[in-house]
Amino acid sequence: xxxxxxxxxxxxxxxxxxxxxxxxxxxxxxxxxxxxxxxxxxxxxxxxxxxxxxxxxxxxxxxxxxxxxxxxxxxxxxxxxxxxxxxxxxxxxxxxxxxxxxxxxxxxxxxxxxxxxxxxxxxxxxxxxxxxxxxxxxxxxxx
Amino acid sequence: xxxxxxxxxxxxxxxxxxxxxxxxxxxxxxxxxxxxxxxxxxxxxxxxxxxxxxxxxxxxxxxxxxxxxxxxxxxxxxxxxxxxxxxxxxxxxxxxxxxxxxxxxxxxxxxxxxxxxxxxxxxxxxxxxxxxxxxxxxxxxxxxxxxxxxxxxxxxxxxxxxx
Lengths: 143, 163
Fold this sequence. Notes:
The complex is a heterodimer of chains A (143) and B (163).
Chain A: E1 2-6, H1 10-18, E2 33-37, H2 49-64, H3 78-86, H4 91-98, H5 104-114, H6 126-139
Antiparallel strand pairs in A: 1-2
Helix pairs in contact in A: 2-3, 4-5, 4-6
Chain B: H1 3-10, E1 19-21, H2 31-35, H3 62-71, E2 75-77, E3 86-94, E4 97-104, E5 112-115, E6 121-124, E7 140-148, H4 155-158
Antiparallel strand pairs in B: 1-6, 2-7, 3-4, 3-7, 4-5, 5-6
């Protein structure tokens, strides 16, 4: 599976916002949305060098951030910026990290920084915010 | 590395200080939520932050946390020393950047209770037990706050048990 960035017409944006079942969503999308392409059309992104790089960076960052009560401070670690530099290709991989408890606030912050589309906005708990992101990701085949 | 080894690696001063682990690790709440025993919240701007409490423009967010604790009835005080009838907090910061908050236990020699990042709750005798830490080597107790002690049981903080 691979991902690509595409621009969306307003009717499709409305469709995705409707898919949130009333959860908070931005009124205007300022970044393109991810489109998951057919695996037959492109190499599997999970085997890409970027994925291996992401896994190494995410493991390093997660270990360094274990004692942080504020994920904002994780931005001081070099791996944080390197994950952001991978761009939106990292979104499905971050969603994958959200499936397991352990460092979910950190992955929520990175996801929220990588895209202005915020499926978890307005949720009260880490679990609810993670579930909102995962529902969004699953609905689009990104998880 | 086990989770306990992770804890001591993150807080290298802890092992030499009197302390007691009082919970399993969890990423479901942070030290800020632990102040109010909100065991399903991660209080942080951008993750979960109450409406009406200011959010930071940039990296410096200490005043926003002070405002949050004010909204919970705490006021800034000058020292961390125990005062009967008061519950005190110690806010750790690097400059104007918030890092951690510990809450004082009841009694002059009782010490403090903290939730350490996504790791454990722990009881620690000294505030310096959590300094330095991980990527925040320069964060120290910088601001102290207090409010009247509501008087509820602190068994969860003292032993990890609801008593």
